[in-house]
């Protein structure tokens, strides 16, 4: 079969063409199983029992599966089997996350009661993640980072197993608002840990508290500096080796944040692609002439930048390359990686194979961390 679209890729995972929201969520669970965040057998068993036309059935199956794993975790913990307890808490968190997803727009009733139930599920997600972090070695943390006028960013922070007490390099991963920090942590924690890096996962959104207080988060890129400030104040983090990843919709404004913060060692973001795309679109509709197209933001950063493009993502890879080249003069600090259908990882956000994408991304970050130490005459070997 020739794969020609994002839908074709996901169809290899699931077969619910009339319910994309649930199909995508099941695809996410099957993908995160590669990282230990689920088991394929459990996912397929739950999927075979549920009725995708019935939201109560969807929530019921994933909640029962999550409850079973949480009970298993508590029993293992009580018996002193910490590794098994951690694994079960991680799977339980993922299944509660699946139970919490919003109802598809064409399913009724999408009402306040569902929002309340989803909130209960997300509370259980957090409790399971907290127990997972507390039983990591070294111990992970749920952190609170000051940001806007007394408002904070909640995040999950994990550490690698180190042979000494020296400060370690860190990766900040910023996602979209809502539940994204959970998904990011499930997918990326192992990759950072295996390479000797700490990982801080947060999501940045426009929450109700900011709106009600009159503080509008219209400049989310300022969160980048706040997160770097937080890590640099910690004695267990090497402030010279901090990288940032902008995931999903956050990738564009993370680029802006990176352009204004010269402390970062590396960044994985869109390199200014969204801004360039908007400029080109305006030029094509009588807007600014193409000759005054903005310079790619990647040129304005003080660190190496990796731009990851999916073949079936929101922007055509060839067009993306031309936009970033800016008259065939691509900045020397910019690297471009395109995931094609033949290797998988080619759907939006590499949803069909996030493991492949994360291996590439964290290996690239490791090389930048090593280069940073060479410049400072220190030693670091990316694992």
Task: Explain what you see.
With 383 residues, the chain is α/β, with parallel strands linked by helices. It folds into 2 domains: 1-135, de novo design (two linked rop proteins); 139-383, 3-Layer(aba) Sandwich (Rossmann fold). The protein contains 13 helices and 8 strands. The protein has an 8-stranded mixed beta sheet, with helices on both faces. α4 (55-78) packs antiparallel against α5 (82-99).
Give me some keywords for this one.
alpha/beta; Rossmann fold; 8 strands; 383 residues; de novo design (two linked rop proteins); eight-stranded mixed beta sheet; globular; 13 helices
Sum this structure up briefly.
With 383 residues, this protein is an alpha/beta fold.
Contiguous runs where pLDDT drops below 50 for at least 5 residues: 1-11, 104-115, 285-292
**Whole-number count of domains:** 2
Strand content: 5-15%
- CATH topology label of the largest domain: Rossmann fold
Tell me which CATH architecture of the largest domain applies here.
Answer: 3-Layer(aba) Sandwich
Spatial order of strands in the largest sheet? 1-2-4-3-5-6-7-8
Task: Compile the SSE list and pairings.
Elements: H1 6-11, H2 20-32, H3 40-49, H4 55-78, H5 82-99, H6 112-134, E1 141-146, E2 152-158, E3 168-175, H7 180-194, E4 198-203, H8 208-212, H9 222-232, E5 237-246, H10 250-259, E6 266-268, H11 273-284, E7 305-310, H12 317-325, E8 334-339, H13 354-375
Parallel strand pairs: 3-4, 3-5, 5-6, 6-7, 7-8
Antiparallel strand pairs: 1-2, 2-4
Helix pairs in contact: 4-5, 5-6, 7-13
């Amino acid at each position: 079969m020739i794969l020609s679209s994002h839908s074709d890729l996901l169809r290899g995972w699931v077969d619910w063409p009339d319910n994309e929201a649930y199909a995508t969520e099941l695809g996410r669970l099957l993908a995160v199983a590669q990282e230990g965040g689920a088991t394929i057998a459990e996912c397929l068993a739950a999927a075979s029992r549920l009725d995708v036309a019935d939201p109560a059935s969807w929530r019921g199956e994933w909640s029962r599966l999550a409850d079973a794993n949480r009970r298993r975790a508590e029993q293992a913990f009580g018996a002193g089997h910490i590794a098994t307890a951690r694994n079960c808490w991680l799977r339980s968190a993922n299944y509660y996350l699946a139970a919490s997803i919003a109802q598809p727009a064409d399913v009724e009733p999408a009402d306040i009661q569902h929002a309340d139930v989803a909130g209960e599920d997300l509370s259980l997600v957090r409790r399971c993640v907290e127990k997972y972090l507390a039983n990591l070695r070294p111990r992970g943390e749920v952190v609170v980072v000051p940001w806007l006028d007394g408002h904070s960013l909640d995040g999950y922070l994990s550490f690698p197993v180190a042979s000494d007490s020296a400060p370690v390099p860190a990766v900040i991963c910023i996602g979209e608002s809502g539940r994204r920090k959970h998904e990011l942590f499930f997918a990326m924690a192992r990759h950072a840990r295996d390479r000797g890096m700490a990982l801080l996962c947060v999501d940045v959104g426009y929450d109700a508290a900011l709106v009600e207080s009159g503080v509008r988060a219209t400049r989310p890129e300022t969160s980048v500096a706040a997160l770097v400030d937080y890590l640099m104040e910690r004695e267990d983090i090497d402030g010279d080796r901090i990288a940032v990843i902008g995931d999903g919709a956050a990738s564009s404004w993370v680029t802006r944040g990176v352009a204004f913060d010269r402390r970062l060692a590396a960044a994985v973001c869109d390199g200014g692609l969204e801004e360039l795309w908007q400029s080109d679109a305006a030029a094509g509709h009588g807007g600014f002439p193409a000759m005054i197209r903005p310079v790619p933001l990647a040129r304005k950063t003080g660190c190496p930048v990796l731009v990851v493009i999916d073949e079936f993502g929101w922007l055509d890879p060839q067009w993306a390359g031309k936009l970033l080249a800016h008259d065939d003069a691509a900045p020397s600090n910019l690297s471009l990686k395109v995931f094609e259908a033949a290797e998988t990882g080619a759907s939006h956000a590499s949803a069909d194979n996030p493991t492949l994408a994360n291996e590439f991304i964290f290996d690239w970050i490791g090389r930048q961390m090593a280069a940073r130490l060479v410049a400072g005459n220190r030693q670091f070997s990316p694992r």
